[in-house]
Design a protein that fits this description.
The protein is of the alpha/beta class. The chain has nine helices and eleven strands. Helices cover 31% and strands 26% of the residues. It has an eight-stranded mixed β-sheet with strand order 4-7-6-5-8-9-11-10, sandwiched between helices. Bound molecules: zinc ion.
């Protein structure tokens, strides 16, 4: 499945490393993931989410606030996938959605890969979920052979549509989740004078056909101040707010709207 990020030749597993015919070699970490991000392709020392964001994210997701979204993703994909399907989760973070999807498709003996640019996130993911094949890699140069997957999930993450199209089999699926108009609106109201609604336009993804689109919205009741802090720290708001401002918000925010658009695209037969 894996291909070399440097020369695009297939990678073969040799003991604790993955190697291509040109002797490019990538180590398999003790946590059980492979780092396929060549040093020369890194634009910063530690790209992607940092440890503080990752801890906040894991705690918040573990509290179950996003479970209805995860359930809906699993339901949609279960309807479309046959036995032994191969799936890739792009921008999988610490693995919450990936692992719940893996459980949901367990009876179908699906095989799951998860990819993220953040090594911190992938270390968290691989330590907890051993059944999934995790890699640190770029979504803009996917380290997989052409036509490898029956489905790809992309929850929020940025990516390159030509790469997604390349690694999908014909008739395979891409499921995307984007924030819809009112996502986290109360949070924005508490931060901005004139909060703006999210743009929610369908992307044009060349080579893929939009087959289905649905909205999922519900409100969550933040049970503890720590939950509010975690929510703030896992979003881009984390960069904008001081710690004092975050603490203030924990007192003012109790109910927050979640609002998502889920889209299902398909790669047509040639
Ligand atoms: Zn190579």
């Amino acid at each position: 499945m894996y291909r070399c990020p440097l020369c695009h030749q297939p990678l073969n597993r040799q003991d604790l490393s993955w190697r291509c015919a040109n002797s490019h070699c990538f180590d398999f970490a003790k946590e059980g993931y492979v780092n396929l991000l060549p040093v020369q392709n890194k634009h910063s020392k530690n790209p992607g989410d940092n440890a503080q964001m990752m801890q906040a994210r894991r705690a918040f997701l573990d509290a179950g606030y996003y479970q209805p979204l995860s359930d809906q993703i699993n339901k949609l994909l279960s309807q479309h996938l046959t036995a032994s399907a191969k799936l890739l989760d792009i921008g999988c973070g610490e693995g919450y959605y990936t692992a719940r999807l893996s459980d949901a498709l367990n009876a179908k003996q699906a095989q799951i890969w998860g990819l993220d640019i953040s090594k911190t996130a992938i270390r968290y993911a691989a330590k907890r979920y051993s059944a999934i094949n995790f890699s640190v890699a770029s979504a803009y140069d996917l380290p997989f052979a052409d036509q490898s997957f029956d489905a790809i999930t992309r929850i929020y993450a940025p990516s390159l549509s030509t790469e997604i199209e390349r690694v999908l089999k014909h008739q395979a699926w891409l499921l995307t989740v984007q924030p819809a108009a009112h996502h986290l609106f109360e949070l924005k109201q508490a931060i901005y004078q004139t909060p703006r609604l999210h743009d929610d336009l369908a992307e044009n993804l060349p080579g893929l056909v939009l087959r289905q689109q649905q909205n999922l919205s519900y409100a969550i009741e933040l049970k503890q101040p720590q939950d509010t802090l975690n929510l703030l720290n896992m979003t881009p708001f984390a960069w904008k707010l001081t710690e004092a401002h975050k603490l203030q918000l924990t007192e003012r925010l109790s109910k927050v709207s979640l609002d998502f658009t889920i889209r299902l695209y398909q790669k047509p037969t040639p």
